[in-house]
Amino acid sequence: MKLLQMTKLMAALSPEQTAFLKKQEIPPSKVFDASGLPRADYSQTMRELELIIAFGVTPCGKAGHTLRTSAGHCAQCNTQAIAFIKRTYDEGDIYVARSDRAKLVKVGVASDAKKRMDWLNEYRYGEAEDWILVYSRRVPKAGRIEFLIHSDLVQHAKPCPYTKFGKQVWCKETYSCSSSVAVRAVNRRADETVTKDQSLPKERNRRVKRL
């Protein structure tokens, strides 16, 4: 187990919360540290980044849980809300981006990978503003595939910060490896998923930049 690769995030979550996120197949990249932020602020950021769960929030009234959706609902009391959110990105772009300045690659899911690059550079994600789209692939079950890819790349994980609402936020889907390593991980998991379910809609695969 290479839990040390998740340091900043895992240290802030209880064992119960960590187990819950794993059971729901929610990768660290879809979890947001909302400590000290009002709901309006963390909800806006989560919608922009298409995140699923916030922690560091006020406890729910029913059981004292501190994991919430972007709408402010308790994720642990209402797992149906998680299922609904995950369905919204069942099909999406799995992408690989690169920053030469930060010497990092990023793997994520977005409804539009090209537009996501604009956001990354605008907010200086990982303290860099030279993110370029290296590769993207439109796939079904994007959330499931992303979860598996992040598990595959955990040995290369290199969390880094950026600032939002005057608060330092840790990026949890950045890696210290070559673009080609990340692209291979994307294609391996995407191919496996499509092969296992031949009833899935035909995917569209597009290479954006020559590696």
Can you walk through the features of this model?
The protein is α+β, with helices and mostly antiparallel strands and 211 residues long. The protein has two domains: 3-87, no CATH class; 92-206, no CATH class. Helix content is 34%, strand content 22%. The chain contains seven helices and ten strands. The chain has helices spanning 7-10, 15-23, 39-49, 79-87, 113-122, 142-152, 179-196; strands at residues 31-33, 53-55, 67-68, 92-99, 104-110, 132-139, 160-164, 167-171, 174-175, 204-206. α3 (39-49) links the parallel β1 and β2. α6 (142-152) packs across α7 (179-196). The two termini are 31 Å apart.
Jot down its keywords.
about 20% strand; disordered N terminus; 10 strands; 7 helices; alpha+beta; five-stranded antiparallel β-sheet
Strand content: 15-25%
Mean of residue pLDDT?
83
Strand arrangement across the biggest beta sheet:
9-5-4-6-10
Q: Give the overall form.
A: globular
Topology record:
Layout: H1 7-10, H2 15-23, E1 31-33, H3 39-49, E2 53-55, E3 67-68, H4 79-87, E4 92-99, E5 104-110, H5 113-122, E6 132-139, H6 142-152, E7 160-164, E8 167-171, E9 174-175, H7 179-196, E10 204-206
Parallel strand pairs: 1-2
Antiparallel strand pairs: 2-3, 4-5, 4-6, 5-9, 6-10, 7-8
Helix pairs in contact: 6-7
Short characterization:
By secondary structure, the protein is an alpha+beta fold. The chain is built from seven helices and ten strands.
